[in-house]
Amino acid sequence: MKIAVFSTKQYDQKFLLAANGAVEHEFNFFEEKLNSNTVFLAQGHDAICCFVNDILTAHVLDQLKTFGIKFIALRCAGFNQVDIRHADSIGIKVTHVPAYSPYAVAEFALTLILALNRKIHRAYNRVRDGNFSIEGLQGFDLYGSTIGLVGTGKIGRVMAQILSGFGVRVLGYDVFPNKEFGALGKYVDLDTLFAESNIVSLHCPLTPDTYHIVDQHSIAKMKRGVMIINTSRGALVDAPAVIEGLKSGQIGYLGLDVYEQEADVFYENLSEEIIQDDVLQRLIAFPNVLVTSHQAYFTETALRNIAQTTLDNVAAFDSGEELKNAVTIEMLH
User: Fold this and answer.
1) What's the rounded Cα separation, in Å, for the pair 241 and 212?
2) What CA–CA distance (Å, rounded) separates 186 from 180?
3) 48 touches 65 (CB < 8 A)
4) Closest alpha carbon to 303 in 101, 103, 153, 106
5) Any catalytic annotation for residue 233?
6) Across-strand partners of 27?
7) pLDDT in the model for residue 26
8) CA distances from 33 to 28, 59, 143, 270 (A)
9) Annotated catalytic residue: which of 262, 273, 304, 322?
């Protein structure tokens, strides 16, 4: 198959070409994100491969349909960037990579917790400037604290397993509870999780029900000085509301690997430019905020698994086999 691959960096090409092996699909790699302005690049291809910040609206999907494209291979777990209902209505199949390395994301979420708590980012900068004072760098023991996990799928369960070694109390909330998490933590309703957790870590997908699950109302229910971690989807967090929480001291720490308006910023080198996003600039300015560029997944293991699963999905579509990783309308609820 001839595949247009959007939003590609050098590492995407490396791992996709390695996974291609003897199959030898023909790839055309584009650094551009797929949207209404770049969809023309998909002409002449049999399928497209997209990532988290490609925007596949109904209009874009209609354009793809006119080009004869019937298959979209997402090389990510999330699919909120695609109008799945419209894709289904016009006969375009969509697959995703539901699991690539839950360990990578869970370990990174823990990294954010530890770095924020012990203020590693601030200590690093101080020492580089010759400042060896530890004033203002005091943290707290994780042992004995309560950590709430919103979402107990594969990543949430791995997170719970890791946290069990720290001697913390783990609370969980999920609309689909599972027995594996039940052996590691305690399920509670969302309000209880917010009220009792010293740290709230988000591991749920973005759906209409979880959009801005962290907003001014939920923040008000949390403990004063709470730590909030988001390594899932940016739109789970209402950024302006979080800024108000930081200013008032209701939020004591914030770790974000994702951001609702990240599409034009993350994965790009903007060091020589003036970033126009005032909300993001304000967030970065807080000393108790740590923002990273959607890198929680970014390990060799994860990249290899993403590429292999993506190619397996392509092979299944090409041969008319069942699409085990298909994104369906039922998954939107």
Assistant:
1) 10
2) 11
3) no
4) 101
5) yes
6) 3
7) 93
8) 13, 15, 43, 16
9) 262
Q: Distances in Å between the alpha carbon of 233 and those of 53, 75, 162?
A: 11, 15, 21
From the list 59, 294, 300, 322, the catalytic residue is 294
Q: Give the pLDDT of residue 331.
A: 85
Question: pLDDT of 81-119, one tens digit each?
Answer: 999 999 999 999 999 999 889 999 999 999 999 999 999
Q: Which two tokens stand for residue 147?
A: 């950590």
Residue 262 annotated in active site: yes
Could you state, in order of their start, the residue ranges of all structural domains in the chain?
A: 2-100+299-332, 102-291
What is d(CA 30, CA 34) in angstroms, rounded to the nearest whole number? 9
Options 3.40.50.150, 3.40.50.720, 3.10.290.10, 3.90.1200.10; CATH of 102-291: 3.40.50.720
The tokens 């108790």 sit on which residue?
Answer: 288
pTM more than 0.85: yes
> Given 233, 268, 272, 322, which residue is catalytic?
233
Sign, CA dihedral 87-208-35-33, equals negative
**pLDDT single digits (tens) 20-51:** 976 679 999 999 999 999 999 999 999 999 99
Residue 19 in contact with residue 309, Cβ under 8 Å? no
Whether the per-residue pLDDT at 218 is higher than 90: the answer is yes
Q: Are 147 and 112 in contact (CB under 8 A)?
A: no
Mean per-residue pLDDT for 275-303?
Answer: 96
Q: Provide the β-strand partners of residue 3.
A: 27, 47
Its CATH architecture, for the domain 2-100+299-332, is: 3-Layer(aba) Sandwich (3.40)
